[in-house]
Design a protein that fits this description.
heterodimer, A: 464 residues, mainly alpha, three-stranded antiparallel beta sheet, 19 helices, B: 192 residues
Chain lengths: 464, 192
């Protein structure tokens, strides 16, 4: 038994089985919950490379799996991301409302997770772009709804992410020849440019960002929340993989300033665009841009501290985005128009969803005593020692996002003559309260998530 | 050129690219793209193994058939506007001229022959234009497929891994499936 067999091939097989059982939506959901829960538990407790004991049976749990002359390798440093991916699936399946989220969500979520993890596992790593593209194509099957859903946002998503594929593969091919002779400056520069363009498209860096807000406005917020909880996390780790594996790139003096500049552009543009945005659904996409910008700063630090911070930031990031998208999907289910005019005085009908939206946005903006605050504070401290302009850019982006939150707060809590009339269902209220509580608890006790992942943190990859 | 016949193939590819970008009906676009696929196959055959080249051809034809059988409107929007057509033709022509003028250096950089570089780059450029000029899902999907066809001429020559080529083929087919799924009208979706 190997780790890729368990966390890639098995979910793919389960996904195929579940696709054949689409009529039995209850069975599918329970099977999905059981599978994702089990895969998460194994990722948390079972080290790769040791013996797996099931009763009297001992199974050697190896890290590599070979197919058609290529290997897929998942080791202990990947267990954290595996845990994050399958835990996200587990919680989204738990929150899934079968009235509004199609049953195909369950099998496709496993297939997407399998392809994204295989992108992290494939050796040589230069081929990961093809596997990411396969995951992206499955995402489109997941988000397409019946009826007259506009497809412009989905098409943009497809076009941009498909354009990244030739860029990254081509860079990989150039590097294949150039790795042997690092003195070939022309080829290395060409490879660096192709990689830069490919990664910029993947991460929706300005000016390649337009697909993300359009996609967020087109698809169901619940599905957007799921996809963008896991996709950017995996893509960032694939990029880290690239950077740490290419010696000439890793040692390039321009890498840190370049990453910081891209990060600054992302944070500042996300702050500016969100502060003037009129569609609430599109705000979710700016949270993704903002978080990715922060993540690039963490990578640019080129230190253990930066990498550790990057991994720590994934948990508040996923909780914040999930809560925001879950709250938005409650509003959408109740036919609330997700534009600024449509959410005026909404607190009188949806107090918990309103709190969910505002709380998650405040957390993402780095508001004190909320989940993302400790990570933001630490990052600001580290960046402040390195570069003052970068610090100003970070602060400007956070301020822009805070302005967007305050504007939304004013609108949603606008005093109206309307009476209080709660339209949320009790299970939704419970979920929203738990989410808000998590944001507060993680902000008040920042050591809790750090302690929770300490078991896995010792095996996290070291970039520089 | 390695073989004189490639002058003919590449010339016909350039004509088919103009045909592809100027067509306003689905059938005409599909015929143009199928012609390109066959001509690309005739070039690939000289540099790849027969099995590999045939696989790529069959994949392309399967993708085309998938798009062809999808129920959708026959005439595409913005296909018949005169000034738009002139602009598209000029953009393609200028791009081809640019590719011709830089051909020696790009061929040297890619370490391939002109027989492969020239069709590959012109097809890539045509794919970009199709994506850039269209709002219609059919043309966009076809643009993506054109782009991948151009890219595969170069990439297929340098990457011989069975797994990666199989995955690229899967990507190609899945793009056609997604295109068919996005183009399908709501009524047909319910029936299916």
């Amino acid at each position: 038994m190997s780790a890729p067999l368990l966390w890639i091939i098995l979910p793919l097989a389960i996904s195929a089985i579940l696709l054949a059982l689409l009529k039995y939506d209850r069975v599918i959901r329970w099977m999905g919950l059981l599978t994702s829960g089990l895969l998460s538990l194994i990722a948390f407790f079972q080290p790769v490379g040791s013996v797996l004991q099931i009763g009297g049976i001992s199974i050697d749990f190896t890290s590599s799996f070979y197919i058609f002359g290529r290997s897929f390798s998942l080791d202990n440093s990947d267990r954290f991301v595996i845990l994050i991916v399958y835990m996200t699936i587990f919680f989204f399946l738990l929150l899934m409302d079968r009235e509004f989220v199609p049953t195909k969500f369950v099998p496709l979520s496993f297939a997407i997770a399998a392809f994204l993890l295989s992108a992290l596992a494939v050796q040589p790593f230069l081929y990961s772009a093809v596997l990411v593209e396969l995951a992206v194509l499955l995402m489109i099957l997941m988000v397409r709804e019946k009826g007259d859903q506009p497809v412009v946002g989905i098409l943009r998503f497809l076009i941009y992410l498909s354009l990244a594929l030739p860029c990254i593969l081509f860079a990989g091919w150039i590097l294949g020849g150039a790795q042997a002779s690092t003195s070939d400056e022309t080829r290395l520069t060409a490879a660096a440019i192709f990689l830069l363009v490919g990664f910029s498209i993947w991460l929706a860096v300005f000016p390649f960002h337009s697909w993300l807000p359009q996609f967020a406005a087109t698809v169901h917020p619940f599905l957007f929340g799921f996809l963008f909880s896991i996709l950017p996390v995996v893509l960032l780790l694939v990029i880290v993989d690239y950077l740490s594996s290419l010696i000439w790139l890793r040692s390039a003096t321009y890498l840190s300033p370049a990453l910081m500049t891209i990060g600054a552009i992302m944070v500042v543009t996300a702050g500016i665009f969100s502060s003037v945005e009129k569609q609430i659904a599109r705000l979710a996409s700016y949270t993704v841009l903002l978080e990715t910008g922060f993540a690039l700063f963490m990578i640019a630090l080129r230190s253990d501290q930066g990498m550790s911070l990057l991994y720590q930031s994934f948990i508040p990031r996923i909780i914040g985005l999930s809560l925001l998208c879950y709250s938005l999907s409650i509003l959408r289910q109740n036919q609330i128009s997700l534009v600024k005019g449509g959410v005026t005085s909404l607190i009188r009908q949806f107090p918990f969803a309103t709190l969910g939206i505002l709380g998650s946005m405040l957390s993402i903006a780095g508001f004190p005593l909320l989940a993302a605050f400790p990570v933001r504070l630490q990052l600001l401290h580290l960046i402040g020692r390195t570069s003052l302009p970068a610090l100003i850019a970070l602060a400007a982006g956070m301020a822009g996002f805070l302005i967007a939150t305050v504007r939304l707060f004013v609108l949603m809590t606008f005093p109206a003559r309307q009476k209080w009339h709660l339209r949320e269902r009790p299970p939704q209220v419970i979920v929203l309260c738990i989410g808000l509580l998590l944001l507060v608890v993680m902000g008040l006790f920042p050591s809790i998530p750090a302690d929770m992942i300490s078991l896995l943190a010792i095996d996290l990859p070291i970039l520089w | 050129m390695q073989h004189w016949v490639n002058y003919l193939s590449i010339g016909m590819i350039e004509i088919a690219l103009f045909w592809l970008i100027l067509s306003s009906s689905r059938k005409s676009i599909i015929y143009a793209f199928s012609t390109i696929l066959i001509l690309v196959f005739s070039i690939n055959l000289q540099f790849w193994t027969f099995g590999f080249a045939v696989t790529k051809l069959i994949t392309g034809i399967m993708a085309m058939l998938l798009l062809l059988i999808t129920p959708a409107e026959e005439t595409l929007p913005a296909g018949g506007v005169g000034i738009g057509r002139i602009f598209r033709a000029l953009s393609l022509g200028m791009g081809i001229l640019l590719i011709f003028s830089t051909l020696a250096s790009t061929t040297q950089f890619l370490s391939l022959t002109i027989d492969q570089t020239l069709p590959s780059l012109t097809i890539l450029w045509c794919g970009f234009l199709l994506i850039a000029f269209s709002k219609d899902p059919f043309r966009i999907i076809l643009g993506l497929l054109t782009l991948l066809t151009g890219f595969e001429i170069i990439y297929g020559s340098v990457e011989r891994s069975l797994l990666i080529n199989a995955l690229l083929t899967a990507v190609y087919l899945l793009i056609a499936v997604i295109g068919s799924y996005l183009m399908m009208p709501a009524s047909s979706e319910d029936e299916s």
